[in-house]
Specification:
Layout (H helix, E strand, L loop, with lengths): L1 H16 L1 H8 L5 E5 L6 H17 L3 E5 L6 H8 L7 E5 L2 H9 L11 E9 L2 E6 L7 H8 L7 E4 L5 H13 L4 E4 L3 H9 L5 E5 L3 H6 L3 E6 L28 E7 L4 H16 L1 H9 L3 E2 L4 H22 L7
Length: about 325
């Protein structure tokens, strides 16, 4: 009787001790929710859906994209930061995850350094510096020459304060030691129309959809924010070639994260499913058609990237004295 009782207690203790491993072994046993802080149809949402579809097959459970748009993606980010660390609520995010707390502090409602467990950076969406096709400025050298004539001689558009295009231009201005005038709009589309009309000098814009406007002679590209020249624009120099190395790291990233304290075993399963998807030719073709540069790094590498990303934008925001929008 004593031996049986001892075995029962020992078995129970072992079950408790190996609970994390057991949970990971059966994970996932129900659908996984992938929260996206942007509306359906945008690049972040599209990439999330492509990956979710393929990961569902690998994991044996549906991965369901749940759009929680609003507040510069903070609604979605806050929700996941407070979710159970069981692997069933994940975040598919972009650079706003780091930028919002830099601008807003505790008002952002989460800490990007402590509230999440990185899984993988799926891809980067390179930015290109564009201006009106018939503008007198024909190169980045021309743009900077004008910018250095006097403060705010050059205007640049963006989708809003703290967005990727805004921060990229502020980084350029800081590195070039030139003060440019930021003209924010409610979205990349309206900003691009003003650039094409010549009412704003230039902007950094995601490479997605640019080729059509270049072919129609509505836009010209001054430089591309990639490590190498883009095959679709072989005659356009990189930012490194025009004197600004490392600019490729300003590209908006899109990656997957779990709540902090999610077990390493579950993170490993999710990472495996995600990188398997990114390695498939049909998935790669869909993402590359969007202009995405596929990454698929490890959780450790993604964590290191996020740290650099936070440090870079914190320095740019401080140097440019960027303040959050008040309306």
């Amino acid at each position: 009787m004593k031996k049986s009782l001892f075995r029962l207690v020992a078995t129970a203790a072992l079950a408790v001790a190996s609970g994390v491993t057991f949970a990971a072994d059966v994970y996932p046993s129900k659908p996984v929710r992938l929260v996206v802080g942007f509306a359906a149809g945008g690049p972040t949402d599209v990439i999330a859906r492509v990956l979710a579809q393929d990961m569902s097959v690998t994991l044996g459970q549906s991965v369901i994209v749940d759009n929680k748009a609003g507040a510069s993606s903070m609604i979605a980010t806050r929700e996941v930061s407070h979710a159970s660390a069981d692997g069933y609520t994940l975040l598919f995010s972009s650079l706003g995850m780091n930028v919002n707390p830099i601008l807003l502090g505790d008002k952002a409602g989460y800490n990007p350094k402590t509230d999440f467990a990185p899984i993988s950076n799926a891809a980067n969406l390179p930015l290109v510096a564009v201006n009106a096709y018939d503008a007198p400025i024909k190169s980045m050298a021309d743009l900077l020459k004008k910018a250095r004539t006097k403060a705010e001689a050059v205007t640049f558009g963006s989708s809003g304060t703290g967005g990727s295009g805004h921060l990229a231009s502020e980084l350029l201005a800081t590195q070039a030691k030139a003060k440019m005038l930021h003209v924010p709009y409610k979205g990349n589309g309206p900003a691009l129309l003003e650039v094409m009309a010549g009412r704003v000098d230039y902007m950094f814009y995601p490479v997605i959809g640019i080729a059509e406007n270049v072919a129609a002679k509505r836009l010209q590209i001054l430089a591309v924010g990639t490590a190498k020249r883009l095959p679709q624009f072989p005659n356009v120099p990189t930012m490194s070639e025009v004197g600004f190395p490392g600019f490729e790291e300003t590209a908006p990233w899109v990656g997957m994260l779990a709540p902090a304290k999610t077990s390493p075993a579950i993170i490993a399963k999710l990472h495996d499913a995600m990188t398997k998807a990114l390695a498939k030719p049909d998935v790669r073709a869909q993402l590359e058609k969007l202009g995405a540069v596929i990454v698929g790094d490890t959780p450790t590498e993604f964590a290191a990237f996020l740290k650099r990303d936070h440090e870079r934008w914190a320095a740019v925001i401080k140097a440019a004295d960027i303040k959050p929008e008040t309306n």
